[in-house]
Design a protein that fits this description.
It contains four helices and 38 strands. By secondary structure, the protein is an all-beta fold. Among the domains are: 203 residues, Sandwich (Immunoglobulin-like); 178 residues, Cupredoxins -  blue copper proteins (Immunoglobulin-like). Strand 33 and strand 34 form a beta hairpin. The relative contact order is 0.14. The N terminus is likely disordered.
């Protein structure tokens, strides 16, 4: 893993700028050679190196055998509720979150038997991971003004994964820190159940329906988050989503305070598509875009499994990543809070099994024609850098082929200016709309989605620039899924033409005021790595010009209702961070590199009254234009932006700022955060208060 070097303050105080290489990746040859298996046509010929004893070895799992579910298959779409056999006046859904058993394609390598995995899912009569897909019509295309969804919490009183109760989470709020004065420490999952709050990511929702993490609720609403007390009418699990928006590829996922990473990892996520009069999703759409069955939607995630098929999430001594983020960083976890050394939150998570729509390394059979694909990076921390690589039939190694050109035609919240490329960076939480022409390869051959990104924090480097220590041993995460070009060409017209999408994305109109915000890496009260957000002052040449804040500190991001703002996002960390603003879509304007000084430390107040530390930033200077390559697609309405790092190890250290422009058209309490889920769960999230109300 990449070296996240330390810098020193004036008094020789050790400041955390990152963490060390993860030595667990340096596996010796003592693991031995895998014995010959009767299932060798399924598995890579590699040594068996699971991340730890008792875990599934990804090299021994099938590649490109399972068929990938298409999240836009009509059979995978939620159907509206009907009233007395008549269509509801509004799109109307009743969705449950509960536990189920699912086959992911995992096998027991010893006997070839299929393994089952206990997961959480969204659904109606049955649930699944990912949840079924919403598809609604925009108001502009004759759709209803809003979609109504009842989110039923049926998760019960036991979490599938280890919960760290030391972090700022739903049941750690106390009377001095919660908006309603309730001491939530009296509640627990065992007594009161697992809390959830579903966020429609990319939705232009009223604040009480946005999925703010302090609007959580337990099964049956027995415990509700403090912000519900500020809502007229109080708690409800019936949410209303605005449909008066253009077509876009949204998604929904859990957003409960401090356990988002766990609830999403357990399976609580799915797609939500808005269609309009242009992007109708129908074969006769005026843009000539491929439509079902030639339109596909794939959620790409990473997981670790036990050798019995269960989901595994590290949190204890001996688990993957523990030494790197806890003992290796000098963190001290008191045994009265962490009996046996855990469970503890870790700064980031990288799964060694790639899962697409709930299936490990699946495949799809396609015709030699254009296919439209919606790709979602639903991982915790992994930046994907994808190529579509042509290989021979049956090949599973993506290094055995050459990349194909493809078009990127849109992103998070709709179509943009088409761009041809052969490489695409997809940040966690980001969605990209691509068109791939499978007639470029011979009939009967295969195309693999290759991942050039490493198994490590992302700094902008990929492909040949990766350090070997950035990669899992004998890694299988360099491949995602495959497409076998084996279906005869149908007589359905293939009319895709990128010129039909021009003039493309026009950006966010109107003038704007500027707001400066910042990204930090510090430590919490135990010495654990703690990513943070903050602000940058107006006097850039001064001392201590940037302030880091934890979640509950007074709100600093307060746009006026109907205002347009340019946000300058200053990255003072060693890594890239995918930044998400709720409520809005935005235009990415430009980037600049800069220099700065670290002159000491600043104290950060923690949720429990203790203190942590972050670097003190001074004298921001020497701004120079920066740019990104064609592997970044930013010419579309976005709700995610990759804030890239500079070189904090330099002398002087450098950073990068990226500027975005957004209009804030609804009032209320929203949030902005890093979409590395392990980061947002450990304080890299802040309130975004639009307008004057203090909700």
């Amino acid at each position: 893993m990449p070296k996240r070097k330390k810098t020193k303050g004036q008094a020789g105080h050790k400041m955390v700028a990152g963490f060390r290489r993860r030595d667990f990746l340096k596996v010796s040859g003592a693991a031995g050679v895998t014995a010959a298996l009767p299932f060798s046509r399924w598995v890579a010929k590699a040594r068996a190196v699971p991340l730890a004893a008792g875990l599934s070895d990804p090299a021994l799992q099938p590649k490109f055998v399972e068929l990938a579910p298409n999240a836009l298959d009509p059979g995978f779409l939620f159907k509206d509720l009907n009233v007395d056999g008549k269509p509801a006046q509004k799109p109307n859904f009743s969705i449950r979150a509960r536990q189920t058993i699912q086959e992911t394609g995992l096998i027991d390598p010893r006997n070839g038997k299929r393994l089952k995995t206990k997961v959480w899912g969204y659904g109606t009569d049955t649930v699944s991971w990912p949840g079924q897909t919403f598809q609604v019509m925009s108001t502009s295309a004759g759709g209803a003004d809003e979609t109504v969804v009842r989110w039923e919490n049926e998760l019960g009183n036991r979490h599938l994964l280890p919960v760290d109760t030391s972090v700022h989470w739903c049941y750690s709020l106390h009377g001095d820190s919660s908006a309603n004065g309730v001491d939530y420490r009296q509640f627990s999952i065992k007594k009161n159940g697992v809390p959830i709050i579903t966020h429609l990511h990319g939705g232009n929702s009223d604040f009480q329906f946005d999925g703010n993490p302090e609007f959580f609720y337990s099964p049956d609403g027995g415990v509700k988050g403090p912000q519900w007390d500020a809502v007229p009418g109080g708690f409800t699990n019936t949410f209303r989503y605005n449909n008066n928006v253009p077509a876009g590829n949204l998604w929904y996922h859990d957003h409960a305070l401090g356990i988002t990473r766990l609830n999403v990892y357990a399976g609580l996520a799915g797609f939500y598509f808005v269609r309009d009069e242009f992007d109708t999703g129908l074969p006769d759409n005026p843009l000539g875009l491929p439509a079902f069955p030639y339109e596909l939607a794939y959620a790409i995630q990473g997981r670790i499994f036990t050798d019995k098929g269960a989901l595994f999430y590290p949190a204890f001594p001996g688990d993957p990543f523990y030494d790197d983020f806890i003992t290796g960083e000098g963190a001290i976890l008191p045994p009265d809070i962490f009996p046996g050394g855990g469970p503890t939150a870790l700064a980031e998570f990288f799964g060694d099994h790639i899962v697409v729509n709930g299936k490990i390394w699946p495949k799809a059979d396609v015709e030699p024609r254009n296919y439209r694909m919606h790709l979602l990076n639903g991982t915790d921390s992994r930046f994907l850098v994808v190529q579509f690589v042509a290989v021979n039939a049956g090949e599973t190694d993506p290094t055995m082929g050459t990349p194909l050109p493809f078009y990127v035609i849109g992103s998070d919240q709709g179509l943009g200016t088409p761009q041809m490329t052969d490489t695409l960076v997809i940040e966690p939480g980001g969605r990209y709309d691509v068109v791939v022409d499978f007639s470029q390869v011979p009939s009967g051959s295969r195309v693999i989605i290759k991942n050039l990104g490493g198994d490590a924090p992302f700094g902008g480097a990929f492909g040949g620039d990766l350090d070997p220590d950035d990669l899992f041993p004998f890694r299988q995460t360099d491949r995602i899924m495959a497409f076998d070009v084996v279906v005869p060409l149908s007589n359905v017209p293939d009319e895709f033409d990128p010129d039909n999408l021009l003039p493309g994305y026009g950006g966010v109109p109107n003038g704007a005021t500027t707001r400066r915000v910042a990204l930090f890496e510090g430590t919490d009260e135990f010495g654990r790595l703690q990513p943070l957000l903050g602000t940058v002052g107006s006097d850039l040449s001064g001392t201590n010009v940037a302030t880091a804040y934890t979640w509950f500190r007074p709100t600093t991001e307060t746009p006026a209702l109907d205002s347009t703002e340019i946000w300058e996002i200053y990255n003072f960390t060693a890594d890239a961070h995918p930044i998400h603003l709720h409520l809005v879509n935005f235009e990415i304007l430009d980037r600049q590199d800069f220099e700065y000084d670290i002159t000491g430390t600043q104290t950060t107040m923690q949720h429990n009254g203790t203190t942590g530390e972050a670097p003190e930033i001074s004298n921001i200077r020497n701004f120079t234009p920066a740019s990104v390559g064609s592997e970044y697609f930013e010419a579309a309405p976005k709700d995610m932006v990759t804030s890239l790092p500079g070189d904090p190890e330099g002398a002087p250290p450098t950073g990068q700022l990226v500027r975005i422009k957004a209009e804030f058209n609804k009032s209320g309490r929203y949030v902005w955060h890093c979409h590395i889920l392990s980061h947002e769960d450990h304080e890299m999230m802040r309130v975004l208060q639009v307008g004057d109300s203090d909700t």
